[in-house]
Amino acid sequence: VAGHPAGQFEYAKLLLHGTGVERDVSAALAWFEAAAKNGHEQAADYVAYANLDRTPDAEPGGAPPTEPTLP
After folding, report:
1. What is the pTM of this model?
2. Rounded Cα–Cα distance for residues 33 and 17 (Å)
3. pLDDT value of position 49
4. Which residues have CB under 8 Å from 11's CB, separation 6+?
5. pLDDT averaged over consecutive 10-residue blocks of the chain (71 residues)?
6. CA torsion sign, 49 to 53 to 58 to 64?
7. CB 55 within 8 A of CB 65
8. What's the confidence (pLDDT) of residue 59?
9. C-alpha atoms less than 13 angstroms from C-alpha of 18 in its C-beta half-sphere
10. Which residue from 44, 38, 34 is spatially nearest to 11, judged by alpha carbons?
11. Which ranges constitute the DSSP H helices of 1-71?
12. Residue 65's pLDDT is what?
């Protein structure tokens, strides 16, 4: 999956929804971020949406909340 943004995005969705794998929102966000860094626009939207859910006192670039809200 590394280096394939569409595959990274699809794997992230599986993790996010627990489809065929154990649900892991934090890992899903990491895969969405990887896909976004590789140019996947919809993955970038998911990352932006999750970042809106960060606490105001979070450090820039810090870890997201345990369960970020994703679409």
Report:
1. 0.73
2. 17
3. 85
4. 1, 31
5. 90 94 93 95 90 55 53 62
6. negative
7. yes
8. 46
9. 4
10. 34
11. 5-17, 25-37, 41-52
12. 46
Judge contact between 64 and 29, C-beta under 8 A. yes
| C-beta neighbour count of 1 within 10 angstroms | 14
AA letter at 6: A
DSSP 66: S
Residue 12 and residue 25 in contact, taking contact as beta carbons nearer than 8 Å: no
- In angstroms, rounded to a whole number, what is the distance separating the alpha carbons of residues 56 and 16? 24
> What is the identity of the amino acid at 28?
A
Q: Residue written as tokens 């969405």?
A: 32
Residues, the chain: 71
